[in-house]
Amino acid sequence: MAFDTAVSGIKAATADLGVIGNNIANSSTTGFKLSRAEFADVYATSLLGAGGNAIGKGVSLAGVTQEFTQGNISFTNNALDLAINGNGFFLLSDDGASLYSRAGNFQVDREGFIVTSEGHRLQAFQVNSVGDITGQVGDLQLDTSLIDPNPTGSVDVTLNLDSREVSPLVPFGGPFDAFAVPPTFPDGDSFNSTSSTTIYDGLGNPHVMSMYFVKTATANEWDVHTLVDGVSTSGPDTLTFQSNGQFDPASLPVELSIAGWTPLNESGSPTGASAQDFTVSLSSGTQFGSEFAVSTIVQDGYTTGQLRGLEIDDSGVAFARYTNGQARALGQIAIAGFTNPNGLQPLGDTTWAETFSSGSATLGEPGSSGLGVIQSGALEDSNVEITEQLVNMIIAQRNFQANAQVIQTEDAVTQTVINLR
C-alpha cells in the first residue's frame, strides 16, 4: 500500500533535513566539511527479478557522503593557526592512534607539544642532530630550554683597504694589554684603519675582536694586528695585494690564525671557558683607490638563547627562533593524502579515521605529490554555503509535506473503501 511508500519518503526527508541541519549547525566550525544525503529507490524483487510493471516500494537512504572541497582561508594573528591550502589532512596522534583533520587551530600544552584543543598531538617529520629533516614521523614539540652557546670558530670579513694611504709615521707598538697597570693601547697615529666585531667563547660570553691595518713601506702590502678585548693575540700578519688591488689567486685562502686564545672577563680574569682557536678570513678583501670600508663581517659564534617565537613556512617546516638571533628547525609538518577521502570515517571533533574504503594514508611534505601547502597564521573555514543549505531545506520540507499528503490521500481512499455497503 501507499502508506509504506509514503512513510519511507517521510523518513528520507527527515534524514535529509538532519543532514542539512548538521551542515548549518557547523557552518562556523573550523575545517568542517559539509555532508550530502544520497537516496536510492526500492523495488520488491524475487529470485527471478522484478516484474516489468513493478511499482516501487519507496526510497531508502543509500549513504551520507562528505564533500572535501576547499574552504575559505581566514587569517589570524596566531602562528600556531594552520590551514592546508589544497589536498590533504593534518596527521594527529591520539595516544598512538592516527587521526586526520583539516582543523588547524593548534596550541602548546605544558610539555611543549603542539596539540589540538582535545589534546591530539600534531605529527611531523623529525630533524636530526644537525637540523636536517628525516623521514621519521613523530610528535612536534617545542624545546623551551636554553640552547647551548657556540664558540666562534671562523670570522669572514669583506673589506676594502684604501690604496692611497701612506705608512704611518708612528710605529705600531705592542703587544698591548688593556688589563695591565697601566693599560696599553694602540696609538691612533700608528695605524691607518681599524674594524671590530663581537666573537663568543665556549660559555657564550661576548668579546670584542679588533683588527688594526697598517700600510707598510712596501707597495701593496699591509700589516694586520689582531686584539681581543684589548689584548694582543696575533700579528702582525702580512697582506699582499696584486697591482689590480686583489689577492693573487694562488695565495688564497687568506686567513689569520688565532691560536690558544684564552677568554678573559671584564676584570681581566679567565672566564672559565677553554682556550680556543679560530680563523679570520680576508680572502674577499680588496685594495682599491677608495675609502676604507667594511662590507660584511660574519662569524659563526653565538651566546645562549631562550625560545622567542615559532614560525612555520609554506613547506611546513617549523622554525624556533631564539633571543640570540638563532633559528632551528624543529620538524616538518606531515600531510596525509588518501585515494578516496570520502571513505574516511568521521569521528567528531572535526577528525576522521582511516578505513578500508579510504585506503591507506600516504604521508608527504606539504606542496609535494599533489598535497596542499601550509598557511601559517590562518584557519580554513567550513565549506558550508548557508544559502545553498537553506534552499535544500525548503526542498526537503516540501518532500516531507508531499509524502504526508500521500498518507492523507491514502487514508481517505481507505475510508471510502471501508464505507462501501
Number of domains: 3
Please give the share of residues in helix: 10-25%
Average of pLDDT: 92
Strand content: 35-45%
Work out the number of β strands. 27
H/E element order: HEEEEEEEEEEEEEEEEEEEEEEEEEEEH
Residue stretches low in confidence (pLDDT < 50, at least 5 long) are none
H/I helix tally = 2
What's the end-to-end separation, in Å?
22 Å
CATH class of the largest domain: Mainly Beta
Radius of gyration, CA atoms, in whole angstroms: 38 Å
Shape: rod-shaped
Question: Biggest sheet: strands, sense, closure?
Answer: 11 strands, antiparallel
CATH superfamily of the largest domain: Flagellar hook protein FlgE
Write the CATH architecture name of the largest domain.
Sandwich
The CATH topology annotation of the largest domain reads as Tick-borne Encephalitis virus Glycoprotein, domain 1
- The helix/strand class is mainly beta
